[in-house]
Design brief:
This protein is an all-alpha fold and 170 residues long. The protein is built from 5 helices and no strands.
Length: 170
């Protein structure tokens, strides 16, 4: 037996060293068959293994079915609850958007029908009207008179200060 192993080993090594891959593979296969004889698997072991695999697959299938049912029912319930509580805000947002869109359309129609008034005088006219509405308030008028009186007093004081400096320099 040892002589047979030595012969197979030397045949494999010689074929492998000379790069004859097909012969080296065949020699290695023959050496492996002598060293590791093929053992037959007992039928009882095979039967027990396939039964265990079948049972595990059946348990996994039942578990997946239960999980799928729970997920579908839970997702459906969550969707119904979300639709119930989200309907009012969604309708509010939709109605606000609809009113804003209608308002924009009406403003656009009025603007197009009256013609765009985009000259400098119309801008100044708008500023003048806004200023007149602001100034027409009595409180604003009193405040404006107070500011003007303070500005005049500051101007007079500054004039006197600058005037005295000129006299000093001369």
């Amino acid at each position: 037996m040892d002589e047979e192993l030595a012969r197979l080993y030397s045949r494999w090594r010689a074929a492998d060293e000379t790069d004859r891959d097909d012969e080296a593979d065949a020699a290695f296969r023959a050496l492996s068959e002598v060293l590791l004889p093929e053992r037959a698997v007992p039928l009882e072991f095979t039967a027990r293994t396939t039964d265990a695999i079948a049972n595990a697959m059946a348990i996994d299938a039942r578990r997946a079915s239960v999980s799928r049912k729970a997920l579908v029912w839970g997702g459906g319930t969550a969707g119904i609850i979300a639709a119930y509580f989200g309907a009012a805000p969604a309708l509010s947002v939709l109605s606000t958007a609809l009113v804003a869109a209608l308002d924009l359309m009406i403003r656009a129609i009025v603007w197009v029908s009256t013609g765009p008034n985009l000259n400098v005088w119309s801008a100044l006219n708008g500023l003048g009207r806004a200023s007149a509405a602001f100034i027409a308030d009595p409180k604003v008028t009193v405040i404006m008179f107070t500011i003007q009186a303070t500005a005049i007093a500051a101007f007079v004081a500054l004039r006197r200060l600058l005037g005295s400096d000129r006299e000093f320099l001369e």
